[in-house]
Amino acid sequence: MTTGEPLRRGVGSTQQTVRRQNLALVLREIAEGEPVSRAGVAQRTGLTRGTVSSLVEELIAGELVTELAAARGTTGRPASPLQLNRAGPAGLGIEIGVDEVAACVVDLAGTVRARRSTPSDHRTREPTAGLDRAADLAADVVAEAGLPVEGAGVALPGVVGRDGVLQRAPNLPRWVDVAVDAELAARLGLPVDVGNEADLAAAAELWFGDAPTDFVHVSGGIGVGGGIVLGGELFRGPGGRAGELGHLVVDPDGPVCSCGGRGCLEQLAGQPALLAAAGVADVGDLLRSPGPAVAVAGRALGVALAGVVNLVDVPTVVLGGLYARLGAPLAVAVTAELRERVPSRTDLRVRLSAPDTGGALRAAAGLVVRRRLRQP
Ligand SMILES: [Zn+2]
């Protein structure tokens, strides 16, 4: 483990920097997937066996890596495979929804080890009540997981500044300029990181699904969320507000939107609009008999996404949330609209979100363990 002491100047600091980088490199190889031996790590990283052994000892001492029993029946000295320590440092994830709060704990490998959710009215009650509820639920889920949780990530349904303050949330009118990070850090006694839930849902596709390194994720719900991933990194923009796909204007004369604009994608392809198009009262009925809702959503999404494709050159669109549940017919409709509007691009792909990524909640917890893996 690193000691946390400041780097000294000169040769010592350079050596220490190199060692830290190598430590992260070795950990990344071990985190890659199947258990791997020290010799395998040396081969893949190009480091010497001696260096790898010394770094691995440090990672084991820091409880980031464990050694499995050596394979039996091999000749010579058996190699002990290494893998991430499932009992090591863990991450807490919290998601504050419109009328629910959820919490989970993931281990170092990103596996969800405990998860709970409970109704919580965030539309009409004070933010402090919702934060108290979230902290109580988090304490329960941490106790259930029984792992050493070293930080929390929080997914929020609104605009989150780089300072960790929730500036506004269209569906939570009372949550204006709430320092969710500081409020929850005080309640939990843990460092807290916050993010927009649509961004984190996109991150979940990247980290836990099978999405490529460049894509736009659009998620249907009461609002419409977007996240743009470029080169394997979330693109948040200088103020953290990039990817607000739900507020791209699709119909300049369309209905007034919660953002103050008019004819936004969210107004035309959000859940209320699709329920109205299908003439049904709830999502269950919508999924059973979507009727014209698929064509309505396909057209509005295709128009908005054509702009995104032209602007940032992302070949892949991933449909999540309600859109993933509407399934292949919607993907077909969006593809047709996109092909018509961007005919020069023959490489465009529209796919459905992987079913078990765990979404924004798991990615919120993933923030914690992924940081740990990058900085062992
Ligand atoms: Zn809008």
Brief summary:
The chain is of the alpha/beta class and 376 residues long. It contains 13 helices and 14 strands. The chain has three domains: 11-84, Arc Repressor Mutant, subunit A (Orthogonal Bundle); 90-201 and 359-374, ATPase, nucleotide binding domain (Nucleotidyltransferase, domain 5, 2-Layer Sandwich); 211-352, Nucleotidyltransferase, domain 5.
Q: How would you name the CATH homologous superfamily of the largest domain?
A: ATPase, nucleotide binding domain
What's the alpha carbon Rg, rounded to whole Å?
A: 23 Å
Q: Which secondary-structure class do the elements indicate? A: alpha/beta
CATH class of the largest domain: Alpha Beta
> Strand-residue fraction?
15-25%
Mean residue pLDDT: 91
Q: Based on DSSP secondary structure assignment, what is the total number of beta strands?
A: 14
User: Hetero groups bound?
Assistant: zinc ion
Count every helix, treating DSSP H or I runs of 4 or more residues as helices. 13
The strand order across the widest sheet is 5-4-3-6-9
Helix share bin: 40-55%
Largest sheet: 5 strands, mixed
The H/E string reads HHHEEEEEHEEEHEHEEEHHHHEHHEH
Low-confidence stretches: 1-9
